[in-house]
Amino acid sequence: MKKRSIQYKSxxxxxxxxxxxxxxxxxxxxxxSGAAATGISQTDLLLGLAVVLAGLILICTLVLLYTVVVMxxxxxxxxxxxxxxxxxxxxxxAQKLSVWSKLTDAVPLEREDEVMTDxxxxxxxxxxxxxxxxxxAMFYATIVFSVVYLAAYHVLDWAPLQDQEYEQEVLAAQLxxxxxxxxxxxxxxxxxxxxxxDEAALAEGAKTYSSYCGACHGAExxxxxxxxxxxxxxxxxxxxxxxxxxIKKGVPQKGMISWEAQLSPEQIQQLASFIISKEGSNPAxxxxxxxxxxxx
Amino acid sequence: xxxxxxxxxxxxxxxxxxLELERFSYDNxxxxxxxxxxxxxxxxxxxxxxxxxxxxxxxxxxxxIEYTSFGRIRPLHTNAVIFAFVGxxxxxxxxxxxxxxxxxxxxxxxxxRVNFWGWQLIIVAAAITLPLGFSTSKEYAExxxxxxxxxxxxxxxxxYNMFAxxxxxxxxxxxxxxxFYIATFVTVAVLHIVNSFELPISFMKSYSWYAGVQDAxxxxxxxxxAVAFFLTTPYLGLMYYxxxxxxxxxxxxxxxxxIHFWALIFLYIWAGPHHLLYNSxxxxxxxxxxxFSVMLIAPSWGGMLNGLLTLRGVWDKxxxxxxxxxxxxxxxxxxxxxxxxxxxxLKNINAISHFTDWTIAHVHxxxxxxxxxxxxxxxxxxxxxxxxxxxxxxxxxxxxFWIATLGILFYAVPMYWAGLTQSLMWKEFTKEGLLAYxxxxxxxxxxxxxxxLRAFGGALFILGLFIMAYNLIKTAKAGxxxxxxxxxxxxxxxxxxxxxxxxxxxxxxxxxxxxxxxxLVVILIGGLVEMMPTFLVESNVPTIASVAPxxxxxxxGRDIYIKEGCNNCHSQMVRPxxxxxxxxxxxxxxxxxVYDHPFLWGSKRTGPxxxxxxxxxxxxxxxxxxIDPESMSPGSIMPAYPWMAEKALxxxxxxxxxxxxxxxxxxxxxxxxxxxxxxLKLQAEEIAARLEQSGVKVSSDKEIIALIAYLQRLGTDIxxxxxxxxxxxxxxxxxxx
Lengths: 296, 737
What we know:
The complex is a heterodimer.
Chain A: H1 2-33, H2 40-76, H3 85-96, H4 99-104, E1 116-121, E2 124-127, H5 133-154, H6 162-184, H7 199-217, E3 233-234, H8 240-249, H9 265-277, E4 292-293
Antiparallel strand pairs in A: 1-2, 3-4
Helix pairs in contact in A: 2-5, 7-9, 8-9
Chain B: H1 4-12, E1 22-27, H2 29-57, H3 70-101, H4 109-132, H5 145-167, H6 176-195, E2 198-202, E3 205-208, H7 212-247, H8 254-268, H9 283-295, H10 297-310, H11 315-320, H12 322-344, H13 347-353, H14 357-386, H15 394-427, H16 440-478, E4 484-489, H17 506-509, H18 512-536, H19 552-563, H20 578-584, H21 619-627, H22 629-632, H23 654-663, H24 672-693, H25 703-713
Antiparallel strand pairs in B: 1-4, 2-3
Helix pairs in contact in B: 2-3, 2-4, 2-16, 3-4, 3-7, 3-14, 4-5, 5-6, 6-7, 6-8, 6-18, 7-10, 7-14, 7-18, 8-10, 8-18, 10-12, 12-14, 12-15, 14-15, 14-16, 15-16, 19-25, 21-25, 23-24, 24-25
């Protein structure tokens, strides 16, 4: 007995341990996401959880309902006015039955012979217990669910199909973002962007550069897959507005991808300012100049 | 167990003419062969699993060799554990129980041995060809066409032997276990043949007959029902034999057996589309997948209940007897997995779980819990009986039980966590409406601790397996093997009289042929209803005018993508979610895939989706990324593919591939197969020249050029600019007219 409890304890401890790194990573994730932790994902998650919960609640309710019915039968019987002595005895016996065996509608072990079939296969016998009522109820419930589900999507059009669902999702997000930006007061874009020179902004730009740009333009901006960014020659204009636009929209035919979806306007502004601040830094192994000369 | 006389009286009920008892013996030797194979392949398959799991944490563990890179080895793991470990487990249990349930020896010892050695040869062939890169890319059906044919033959051998045994039985009625064996046999045969319908190009290379959406539907009809009819129904059959045997209790409910058997096999076959929710499958087919999955809860639980409730009255025995412990955990895991499955089939939950590690957790609860634990329980029960001795050590078996249970938990919990984290990070937006984690790699690196823990859980499970192997070998050494177990039973009389109040279902239990035909009809309905309209009604796959066949170089590149198993980690299926269209581009349309033999949508996104990869990065980025992923994506866990820049592209079959594609309806003009290689070279030189401009020197005849061509084409047709000049090597459908 003692040994078993040790086994259980060590199992629980091991389980607990297994969750530790997850907590750590969750913290990390929360840390990087910052305040902007709301979004569709959580709505989805909540919806999902709600459905699981609803399912579980449904099952539990059915089980409970049945229990109540059975319990009422069992409890009320002895109070019947015409209960004879023998009836009382059987009622008492019935009371002894566990709720579980009532739930399964199983014939108790001691009366098993009543439901024993004459089947025998290599020594295996078969009982013929009733189908557990909650199981039957669950089966019916899923069938009803299925009919309603198919009707809702494909006959009555209560629920959107996936293309419509997508349009709704995008529209809702668009309104939300517009509202947010309106409240914040205008967004930065290539028509109004200004060059930043403060240390903090340039440092942020440098950070963005090394995570996203260095692979192609070189760690020191010297060029590689993409052009050198430290000389005075520019393929798509060297003004901060031009650089902003190039980063934002990309030059797909030349392999420069659009960063609009990945970087916020503020980030692009910082990045463009950082790149321009590096003009004339003359790194080693610089790629040959490309494009037009731009005089600042 | 000489219950011959007793059987006669018990089954007949009324007074039959007394028949002479016949003496015969059960073939235990074949059971022993399959049992050993189960243990050996179990160890191999799981070790390969551990190996690939570790590669996700330490990518260098592939040693930079093509034969051990993730994309080629992961299919080896799945095939080995499904078809080698569980497959041999099925045969072990069926060959043992069928003889006893039919009171006869197997029909033919020779066929039994052909079945055994044939199956092992197939496994060896898989273990050789998959690392070599021979793959159809279709999950759990990666093996190429000659092996597919061998599998079909072996399955027929097994089925013939089984059925002939059933026909020569000495018991009147078929026990529920045998219903499941029969349903397994017919359904697996149908699934395997339909899904393996492919056009051979050469020895070891073929293309799926179906394309795009249709291929996806067939594949997941197969994939889902491989789980249903290879991992579930035969094991339910084994459960129905070994649980009452081990517990020495009557089966709980005969009528539950009947209803859950027929309901299960009828409903299961419909559920495949739940693997394609929010994919480019018609909505109606998706909805069918959803509702039939939900309706599966009760029939699945019927099996669990009949197993667990059979243990009524002997729960004290469960505490003492390791065999029963394994079986109880197996049944519980089965119950959990079959509840989780329908939940994952609900669209809003699937939107979170699909493509993530959640799916991996789910299948391992089923695989390790249900199949693994039931196999272990069965082996612990079989060995002492066949060697006529006691289990060497109950204590070791208990240790195995706890280690394996812990292993499952350590595997599943981190993977659930990983799946949820992935999904939330993929979908999160900032208030400005930008993705919170635009860099996919950042999300990948978050997973590493979970992947490490999962590997630890897997290692525990394997440790348990080795403890079992030791225990069983010791048991075998201590006993003496009974190769031919003596038995006796009376033959069946020619006439059978129904007796009063007999259950109506007894009728079909006396008629194996009708039972087989009945199950065949029942399992054909769902597949037909889903497939016929998808194949025949055009509106299900609306065509897109700008979608053109691949150039010959791109087609070769696609075959390299398939060969390297890129689809094991990269999906090509942008779902209609804002988070996916923002990250990857326009969501996938059914008409984009009409020339994709086979489809390559994938089922897991360890790396980012590649559907809209074309034109996203310059050629040189792809070159550098394939040679050394970390040079372009620091911290990436993708394997490096340096050999692609060294190996010359094999163009000897390009013409044959073009012809095969045309046979299947891809509009390459007549005679194009002769021009294909010239066109291929033209495009390859163009790419090599572009690479050179960016400072990458590579000869135009290397494999990597073809792969880059394919990657740059991916997903671009839909946004094709009609004004754009048509390159001479491009194939436009109009050319056909």
